[in-house]
Amino acid sequence: MARKKAPITDEVKKRLDEIFLEDDDKSDIEADQLDAQTYPLRELKSVILSIEWEISDEVMHRFLEEVARLKNSYNNDRIMSPFFKMLDSLGRYIKKYKAKANPGAVKVLNSVYAALERTLLSDDDLKATEKETILLEEVQRFKDLKRKIQAGRESGEERGRAEKTTSELVEGKDVSIDWDEGRGTPESLLAAVNELKVLIRSEFETLREEMLAWLDEKCGQESKAGRKGRKK
Amino acid sequence: MAFVNLKKKEVQVKIVYYGPGRGGKTTNLEYIYNEFNDRIKTEMIAIKTQGDRTLFFDFLPFEMGKIKGYDVKIQLYTVPGQVKYDATRRLVLRGVDGVVFVADSMKVRRKSNMLSVKNLQDNLATYKKSIFKIPLVFQYNKRDLAGDGIPLLSHETMEKDLNSRLKVPSFEASALKGDNVVKTLKKIITLTMSALEKEFK
User: Fold this and answer.
1) CATH 3.40.50.300 fits B3-200, yes or no
2) Which of A17, A79, B26, B91 has its CA 20 to 30 A from that of A67?
3) What is the structure's pLDDT at B54?
4) Residues of A in contact with B197 (CB under 8 A)
């Protein structure tokens, strides 16, 4: 198919806007830039509100585009990056299944967004460990949803295996949500889990030491009491 | 018609600011020059008489850069508005690609606006151009005078007087303050470039 030529007017208008940018336009752009710095989630929030009303291809496309943009911006942020990865997966899943998507998916999406907003806009109010805790809670919600979807799909597959066509099976494989553990688990999350393991291990060691000390003490008292009893 | 140099891949577009005397044609160009000189990097040439009136014409060229592979150069001209300089007006109109008609919004200038539109039609006809076909934008200038209590023509009246048959884009403006000066310019350039593209297809 031959590509339709873009009209010259688009190019002319764009060039004219570049040359004849007036102070009013400049201040608008500066305000937008400032807004983007102080509230970088504005566009994402607006799209998420649209999802509440209607799950259409257009809305989901806008959502995924905005998530991709933010994901790119926060690529090196070990706390923020997993939030965007989860939103991306949820968005692709909801886009694919729309009304047939698990009802919990939109709830989890809203929850992940709310946690992201809280974490991102907190500045220094939240400590890094608090942010990690928030992230872990959302990861848990995400995993629970994943389990439910997989369970539902497996039972559905068993019921309808006999009548399923090849194309349906292919479609089943092509689920856009990224459920792969290795790819879906970010490095920061693994680091946080390892930190927790170390913490729990050290807690247990301390507890064990305290218990041993307590047992020693108790045994010492009992043996003293025994000796006294025998003397009598 | 625009001057096109196929070898150099260059297009020169001529836009003329037309209208009655003391209507604000030169003020339009001066605003553009003063505001955007650092970006368009050009010189404005104005030939004036003692009374600060345009004797021959004002000339403000600037480059738009490459569009569709061609270097586009825009040349803005004004004509002398005074009735007696009709020969000069005709001369300036030679090779025109687009026209901005700067009308005076003051009530006392109503007739001179209409006469000037008629004069534009006649002068274009000498070059076998039709006022109904050439890219044209109306600018109803001096709207800021309303604040000084000076009686102005309403937008509707000006549309009825000047634009009822032509039905081209029109803007209320204040060339002195810069209101809608750029909007007018952008509109005429866009219309002209679009017309030229159709012509060369």
Assistant:
1) yes
2) A17
3) 67
4) 7-8
